[in-house]
């Protein structure tokens, strides 16, 4: 018997957590934050306790699997984004099970949570969790290194946990999505699929497109004698690598500023995924006030890559907009948002406030210099065609997004309620 429990991520973009029960054993896939609620709590200064986070829906409510706690043999994590790993800090201790993930993701988890047993499995490698359950981390391209589709192997067939991926034929960091391996899978019982961009009728572009967009601005516009500030997701190592390359061509020096950006880069360098040794890195800008004052005197010799693209109140870009640092944004300086806005109310509002502050400073603003790390509708069509699952379970999205994926499956011969299943958080299905 197999039962799938949707704990989080089945009503929103984020808070991802799924439990798979296989006879007398079970595994958990991901333990993520709902970033919108989490950011709101941070800004209110509320204590980040399990009780407060649960009450505000910032972490998954695992009450639906309370009866399975002794059955859980492993917590398997797909990649290093906070909406997949961020809740480990508060939920891990509720289970007597190891966390199993790829080496880079393990490095980031260790910076965010205390985990007694953390098992590292190389990408495109397998691991036997128990008598009935094995897993395989199948390499996929995404906006963070060593992201994986998790292949859960059971005697009933394979269950593919395919969140946060796209099929990028020209990745900047790491290998291409392992389509060959996905095509070799011959008995896929269920595909749990990423619905984030299922309503976008296109193919998600390669990361090289974002690099060319950045190049066009930084090398094709009148930047001399002006400061250049770029913000992107801290975890987006490939984007940061592209920026570093363009900065070098421009004849400037890169300066990365911000705690989360520092941590992600440090982990990538530790595993020799990238080498950013030619750039300067600052973890906490307020501790580098004298250095920032010196850099401010010759801004046109640097490019500053900073945290804060979502308008977070304590992030570096917001501190710059609020004149809280010796480094200043002057009229006609370039501010490039190499990121999209996470589609949640709090984050959209914070970003709008930040942009208004930058406009008052008369900065030149460039938005959406970005390509997504999520598969769009036509990428998802290919994934379904390649893997030929018997059942499909849309995840990682609000109801309109999961419904879009269900509609796509309907076009491909699947039937809602029969072999396409839409559930909400706390609900389960038996297959």
Write a concise keyword list for the protein shown above.
alpha/beta, seven-stranded mixed sheet, 431 residues, six-stranded mixed sheet, Rossmann fold, globular, Metallo-beta-lactamase, Chain A
What do these coordinates show?
The protein is 31% helix and 21% strand. By secondary structure, it is α/β, with parallel strands linked by helices. A seven-stranded mixed sheet has the order 6-5-4-3-2-1-19. The chain has a six-stranded mixed sheet with strand order 7-8-9-10-11-18. A hairpin with a 2-residue loop joins β2 (17-22) and β3. The longest helix is centred in the C-terminal third of the chain and has 16 residues, at 345-360. The chain is globular, with a radius of gyration of 22 Å. It starts with a strand and ends with a strand.
**What is Rg?**
22 Å
Quaternary structure: single chain
Mean pLDDT: 94
Spatial separation of the terminal alpha carbons? 7 Å
**Based on the structure given, which CATH architecture of the largest domain is correct?**
4-Layer Sandwich
Strand order of the largest sheet: 6-5-4-3-2-1-19
Low-confidence stretches: none
CATH class of the largest domain: Alpha Beta
**Superfamily at the CATH H level of the largest domain?**
Ribonuclease Z/Hydroxyacylglutathione hydrolase-like
Strand count, sense and barrel status of the largest sheet are: 7 strands, mixed
Strand content: 15-25%
- Shape, please? globular
Report the strand count: 19
The helical percent reads 25-40%
Tally of alpha and pi helices? 14
Total domain count: 2
* CATH topology (fold) name of the largest domain: Metallo-beta-lactamase, Chain A
Structural category: alpha/beta
